[in-house]
Amino acid sequence: MNNQQLHQRRSQVIAQGMGAMYPLYVERAENAHVWDIEGNKYIDFAAGIAVTNTGHSNQRITNAVKEQLDNFSHTCAMVTPYGSFVELAEKLTELAPGDSAKKAIFLTTGAEAVENAVKVARAHTGRSGVIAFKGGFHGRTNMTMGLTGKIAPYKAGFGPFPNEIFHAPYPNELHGISTQDSLQALQDLFACDIEPSRVAAIIFEPVQGEGGFYQAPVDFAKALRALCDQHGIMLIADEIQTGFARTGKLFATEYLDIEPDMMTMAKGIAGGFPISAVVGKASVMDSALPGGLGGTYAGSPLGCVAGLEVLKIVEEEDLCNKANGIGEIVNRRMTELQKSLPQIAEIRTIGAMMAIEFADPESGQPLQDLTKAVIGKAQENGLILLSCGVRANVIRLLPPLTIESEVLEEGLDRLEKILLELA
Ligand SMILES: Cc1ncc(COP(=O)(O)O)c(C=O)c1O
């Protein structure tokens, strides 16, 4: 069986809505390398979309999960819980930014974490409205699709979405949206669409992920915090893509010098095991009735032990510093390349959450075709890459934070070669 044959079989039985970036079928993966079933070896600059921050097949996580599996795999934490469930909550509530006493809940996916944060915000405030941002991504369930601020492919054809959701522009210097513009748009929403006293929550990503890796300015985050305080609105930071050392801090909110009322976490939380969390102020988190939050697999014991191991690895292996080191290398090399490639409009590196945006140097128009071609060429050059951006003109680099420096350099050599060939 080769990649092409499996891809053919896939197309017969998997609906096209569940896309695949590459017709590449994985046999095994180790740290920043992936091998396909034909024996081809790739450098992975995707890490399963910022999930395996601690590297593929991390032995410490594998051992912790194996040991757990030998004991039990599932009891349902809402029926008969276990120590790792409590311990992971203790650790995350301690590590989440801000001085308030905190509580957590566990779920399975990122979208579920966002759904539950909105549920808690509504239960706490007794209000219904939610404000999110254009270009934001929060998931594929009905509520999180509604919150997402990008139509194709996430919302196209899937409406109606829940009502009482409103979108404001996210600050974006490159595209001429200032903090002031975004704040004014929020005031306009309050004047034209929903009074602030009916808004339960404002949800934002400290760095927009799918939207293109744009970081929230500190003055914007502080103004959001002040606005929420003024009107009794819950501020939710969606840290699903940014969390767990990816941006050079354990959580990207730490750059913003604010304490959100709730944070959503998933992806890197457990290095590839499906578990997510909402961590927030205890006074807020306790608003829902017992049994109102959770799920059959919520806080799976496999996810909990993996999550505990991830936190140890992040600390012991200093992954925040490693993320910053990766960002510096990528920034230096891509800035050098930009001198000969004016199609590179901007290089953004927030720790190891790294993006390259392409635009026509004269017209400023987004270069979607170039972006698509770069992604397409990556496979034949032994590289796994992802795109993002509302205008589909950004490639994002998300290698495991444990990537060896020579593998990172080799991956960047390949990327440079592709870019020079195509631009
Ligand atoms: C910021 C953000 N929120 C929510 C989600 C949804 O997470 P999941 O795909 O686990 O439901 C994602 C996934 O990419 C994300 O990046």
Automatic annotation (TrEMBL):
Pfam families: Aminotran_3. Its EC number is 2.6.1.19. PROSITE patterns: AA_TRANSFER_CLASS_3 (PS00600). One of its GO terms (molecular function) is pyridoxal phosphate binding. The keyword Oxidoreductase does not apply. The keyword Transferase applies. InterPro entries: 4NH2But_aminotransferase_bac (IPR004632), Aminotrans_3 (IPR005814), Aminotrans_3_PPA_site (IPR049704), Class-III_PLP-dep_AT (IPR050103), PyrdxlP-dep_Trfase (IPR015424), PyrdxlP-dep_Trfase_major (IPR015421), PyrdxlP-dep_Trfase_small (IPR015422). It is an enzyme of class 2 (transferase). GO terms for biological process: gamma-aminobutyric acid metabolic process. Its cofactor is pyridoxal 5'-phosphate. NCBIfam families: GABAtrnsam. Belongs to the class-III pyridoxal-phosphate-dependent aminotransferase family. This is 4-aminobutyrate--2-oxoglutarate transaminase. It comes from Vibrio gelatinilyticus.
